[in-house]
Design goal:
The structure holds 2 protein chains of 2 kinds. By secondary structure, chain A is of the alpha+beta class. In chain A, 16% of the residues lie in helices and 19% in strands. In chain A, the strands form 2 sheets. A 5-stranded antiparallel β-sheet of chain A has the order 4-3-2-1-5, with no helix packed on it. In chain A, strands 6-7 form a two-stranded parallel ribbon. By secondary structure, chain B is an alpha+beta fold. Chain B has 2 helices and 6 strands. Chain B is globular. Classes of the chains: A alpha+beta, B alpha+beta. At the A-B interface, strand 4 of A face strand 5 of B. Strand 4 of chain A pairs antiparallel with strand 5 of chain B.
């Protein structure tokens, strides 16, 4: 075959077909909700076992989807004083706190230039539905700095359509660096105690250096603060997944 | 605001008037401040009446949202919001654009006129 140049083109073999064996089971992503992991302390593990049984019972009746801090959720709650008795709120999850049945998550949104945050309890019977509109992670575990960031980073459309999560394998990490309002902020987010990676600090070098004065580099090596949860997580994951499959 | 995090509303807190009344929206060199809270404790939460000092006048107002976190499932706003009100409970403005918590519907008797002019609920 002669190509457009006039010279003989090198023979390119056709690409090999990729065979995806759909019958073979794909490795499912393991996600254990953080409220199952018991906090470090001297309480009787029986208490956590009983709480876990109640949590699993609730999850069998009502589906609590997997979500992380930074994903956009829509929650419908039963409200006596709302029209049609149901109240829908869309927002980005900025923090997940509490362990066991008292686990909470805070959703934030800006409606009509007014920032609103609502703290919901995951296992409350008042919640009627939780939908994940956008499943993604952010660079930090706690997005409280969004209160001091420009409001465009906390606005989400109330009638947003759910973004389909493509792979069953990875959760996308949004490496967005947020721009802040001018100081003063509610907390000094530039300090190393908060360890925030998701802010684009436009502060002078002098301020950033001064903030490093409060760094405590010995904290990560402190052995008394160590809490290795890998083995506990394995046990709880087995227990929870078996119960939920029944 | 200049000072740091403020919580529920008490004497001398600066508030933000949320309705479209003339008193609330004309600029003045001093922000509207609370001078009295009609409550047994001096702390005002959502649904309490307060006395406001605006443009050199005293006016009553109703709290519709504050920065302090309340019970779970209730919204927490980023600013202390207030709606100007007469002594008999009639609102002065004609429209409230900012979202109002549904909890106010519980006291429909006292706040029916304020809830009637509100457009967004949370």
């Amino acid at each position: 075959r002669i190509s457009s140049d006039g010279k003989l083109a090198k023979f390119q073999p056709p690409p090999k077909p990729v065979i995806i064996d759909k019958q073979k089971q794909r490795e499912e992503r393991r996600f254990l909700s953080p409220e199952f992991i018991p906090p470090r302390g001297r309480t009787d593990p029986l208490k956590f076992y009983m709480e876990r049984k109640d949590m699993i019972q609730r999850r069998k009746v009502f589906n609590i989807p997997e979500f992380y801090v930074g994903s956009v959720l829509a929650v419908t709650t039963a409200d006596l004083y709302a029209n049609e008795k149901a109240n829908r709120f869309v927002g980005i999850c900025i923090q997940r706190g509490g362990k066991g049945l008292g686990a909470t998550f805070v959703l934030r949104n800006v409606i009509e230039d007014q920032g609103v945050e609502i703290c919901y309890e995951l296992y409350s019977p008042r919640i009627q539905a939780i939908e994940v509109l956008k499943l993604e992670k952010r660079l930090d575990d706690n997005l409280m700095y969004l209160r001091d960031a420009l409001p465009e980073y906390s606005t989400f459309d109330v009638n947003m359509k759910p973004v389909s999560h493509l792979d069953h394998e990875e959760v996308p990490v949004n490496k967005l660096q947020v721009r802040m309002k001018p100081k003063p902020w509610s907390k000094r987010w530039e300090r190393p105690k908060y360890n925030i990676k998701g802010i684009k600090f436009e502060l002078p070098e002098k301020t950033m250096k001064e903030a490093q004065k409060w760094s405590q580099p010995w904290l990560e090596f402190d052995m008394l603060r160590e809490y290795d949860t890998s083995k506990i997580e394995e046990k709880i994951w087995k227990e929870v997944s078996e119960e939920l499959k029944k | 605001s200049i000072t740091g995090a403020c919580r529920a509303i008490q004497k001398l807190t600066r508030v933000r008037v949320v309705d479209n009344s003339a008193l609330g929206n004309t600029p003045y060199h001093r922000p509207p401040k609370c001078i009295h809270v009609y409550n047994k404790t001096g702390v005002g939460k959502v649904g309490d009446k307060i006395l406001l000092a605006i443009k050199g006048e005293k006016k009553k107002a109703l709290i519709v949202g504050h920065k302090m976190p309340g019970p779970t499932m209730t919204p927490r706003f980023d600013s202390n919001n207030v709606v100007l009100i007469e002594d008999n409970g009639n609102p002065i403005g004609t429209r409230i654009k900012t979202p109002i918590p549904y909890i106010l519907r519980q006291r429909e008797g006292e706040f029916s006129k304020v809830l009637a002019i509100a457009h967004n609920f949370v």
